[in-house]
Amino acid sequence: MKSLLAITASALILQGCAFAPGQHLSPNDFRGEDRTAEDGTVKLVRITPELLKGDIASSMGTASKQELLDFQPESYRIGANDLLYITVWDHPELTAPSGAQQQLEANGRLVRPDGTLFYPYIGQVKAEGMTIEELRSTIASRLTNYIDSPQVDVGVLRYGSKRVVLSGAFNTAGEVPITASPMTITQAIGQAGVDVDNADLSGLTLKREGREYLLDIDDLNRSESWLHQVYLKPGDQLHLPYNDQKKIYVLGEVIQPQAMIFKSTSLNLMDAIGTAGGLRQETASGDAIYVIRGAQNIATQQATVFQLSAKSPTAFALAKHFPLHPQDVVFVGPANIARWNRFISNLLPSAAIIGTGAAADYNLRR
């Protein structure tokens, strides 16, 4: 019996690391020059200064960016449902037919759904598609048959023909009219307001004429931002998703494992580890800091595991420049001694039970 116990204990101790409880990951799990797992579904990439020089963060292509910057709005063209205020100087009966005491909109001229409006003396006018200046000149020219040298002015009381739609995590989502003053993306966002606690700032999407452009509101905080130069076009849709489905998971040998809300692309590996309270110095392995990033289509693409060697605290200079993506898993593995201690702590109670049983069996045999 004693020999059997000794052999069993020796075998368990020799296999201690393999049977240690808890999850662990090692570079040895990845083989070959391309550092791919045996099943071929996961690839290991080391976080180095050379890697960070590359574009590992998702960004808009140069061509798409240029398409947005190339659009320059032209002069406002009148459309159906616009409410116009037409002034003919020295002729109040034409300017305010409802009476000067009435509210301004009561004397407005509504552009009908067919694009026309009615004006005294000259009848129907096809206003849709005209600029404000073109309509002013047309009315003045046609009034010369009835009024000597008419002085005409045209303004828009209410814009109703051209709109953009803002949806998602805006404080005031809905339709925003396009006016005679061109509107940029940043102006529309500022007007609607952003629910910063619940918005995914990295997921702003502009839908235009059947195409989608992924933008990043958080980019406005950077000196090289170009979003303030992008003008909105009638019919555009801006959607800002909520961040309730986008998180970063920090697991393993950190002080406070947790799921973090992903709010912007500025969240980096150092931020995630710091928010989790840092590494457990007594149990964490400096060579076992990983970022596990799944593939969009696991059936055809490889997932990627990024490894940071942080035996020295200076390695966190690299972590500060490594951007995280939504649904990334940050895993800090245990040191070998920690795995060993956990194995022993689980082994000793079992060994005590076996020893007690052996002693009882020995006493009964005596």
Automatic annotation (TrEMBL):
<dbReference type="InterPro" id="IPR003715">
    <property type="entry name" value="Poly_export_N"/>
</dbReference>
<dbReference type="Pfam" id="PF02563">
    <property type="entry name" value="Poly_export"/>
</dbReference>
<feature type="domain" description="Outer-membrane lipoprotein Wza C-terminal">
    <location>
        <begin position="337"/>
        <end position="356"/>
    </location>
</feature>
<feature type="domain" description="Polysaccharide export protein N-terminal">
    <location>
        <begin position="73"/>
        <end position="156"/>
    </location>
</feature>
<feature type="domain" description="SLBB">
    <location>
        <begin position="162"/>
        <end position="239"/>
    </location>
</feature>
<keyword id="KW-1134">Transmembrane beta strand</keyword>
<keyword id="KW-0998">Cell outer membrane</keyword>
<dbReference type="InterPro" id="IPR040716">
    <property type="entry name" value="Wza_C"/>
</dbReference>
<comment type="similarity">
    <text>Belongs to the BexD/CtrA/VexA family.</text>
</comment>
<keyword id="KW-0406">Ion transport</keyword>
<dbReference type="Pfam" id="PF22461">
    <property type="entry name" value="SLBB_2"/>
</dbReference>
<feature type="signal peptide">
    <location>
        <begin position="1"/>
        <end position="20"/>
    </location>
</feature>
<dbReference type="InterPro" id="IPR049712">
    <property type="entry name" value="Poly_export"/>
</dbReference>
<keyword id="KW-0472">Membrane</keyword>
<keyword id="KW-0625">Polysaccharide transport</keyword>
<feature type="domain" description="SLBB">
    <location>
        <begin position="246"/>
        <end position="332"/>
    </location>
</feature>
<keyword id="KW-0813">Transport</keyword>
<keyword id="KW-0564">Palmitate</keyword>
<keyword id="KW-0812">Transmembrane</keyword>
<keyword id="KW-0732">Signal</keyword>
<keyword id="KW-0762">Sugar transport</keyword>
<dbReference type="InterPro" id="IPR054765">
    <property type="entry name" value="SLBB_dom"/>
</dbReference>
<dbReference type="Pfam" id="PF18412">
    <property type="entry name" value="Wza_C"/>
</dbReference>
<keyword id="KW-0449">Lipoprotein</keyword>
<keyword id="KW-0626">Porin</keyword>
<protein>
    <submittedName>
        <fullName>Polysaccharide biosynthesis/export family protein</fullName>
    </submittedName>
</protein>
